[in-house]
Amino acid sequence: MSSKEHTYSVRVRWTGNLGKGTSGYQGYTRNHEISIEGKPAIVGSSDPAFRGDPTRYNPEELLVASLSACHMLWYLHLCSKGGISVIEYHDDAVGIMKETSDGGGHFEEVVLRPEVVIEKGDAATADALHEKAHHLCFISRSVNFRVRCQPTIRPRTQQDAD
């Protein structure tokens, strides 16, 4: 089987120059824009713990979101192929990052907590497809920390229809 290569081009532009550049640690903001041609920009900053703007997305949040979204997309694909009809899906994912004594840090783990409502199909099969989605997710296969998945599957109820 031949492999395909995909390229992703992203521009990150710092917008935090307050007039004197990085002449002092407190003299600039960590604000930036993430853009991809033809798509709306994402406004970013650093985590507020590192002098970032709490109203903007930070790289750590976006990493957790990428893992969650990749897992979801694979899962929905596998369900559609496997005869499972998903009608609702949300994930309250959480990432844990630890700072190190040298000023850096690393993620220790991300826990995905997808809650899935199915209208058709077997709940046990729907649950098992999370493991396969995790194995296929491009992002989770690319990180060097643990990514766990704790799914909840339930059949559609009358309340879901309302």
Write the layout of secondary structure elements.
Blueprint: E1 11-14, E2 32-35, E3 42-44, H1 59-81, E4 85-91, E5 94-99, E6 105-112, E7 114-120, H2 123-136, E8 146-149, E9 152-155, H3 158-161
Parallel strand pairs: 6-8, 7-9
Antiparallel strand pairs: 1-2, 2-3, 4-7, 5-6
Helix pairs in contact: 1-2
Q: In the CATH hierarchy, what is the class of the largest domain? A: Alpha Beta
Average pLDDT, to the nearest integer? Answer: 94
Count of the separate structural domains: 2
- What's the number of helices? 3
Determine the CATH superfamily of the largest domain: K homology (KH) domain
Write the element-wise H/E pattern from the N-terminal end onward.
EEEHEEEEHEEH
CATH architectural name of the largest domain: 2-Layer Sandwich
Characteristics:
162 residues; alpha/beta; GMP Synthetase, Chain A, domain 3; 2 domains; three-stranded antiparallel beta sheet; three-stranded mixed beta sheet; 3 helices; elongated
Structure write-up:
The chain is an alpha/beta fold. The protein has 2 domains: 11-50, no CATH class; 59-161, GMP Synthetase, Chain A, domain 3 (2-Layer Sandwich). Helix content is 25%, strand content 29%. The chain has 3 helices and 9 strands. The strands form 3 sheets. Strands 1-2-3 form a 3-stranded antiparallel β-sheet, with no helix packed on it. A hairpin with a 6-residue loop joins strand 2 (32-35) and strand 3 (42-44). The longest helix has 23 residues, at 59-81. The radius of gyration is 20 Å and the shape is elongated. The model has no long low-confidence stretch (mean pLDDT 94).
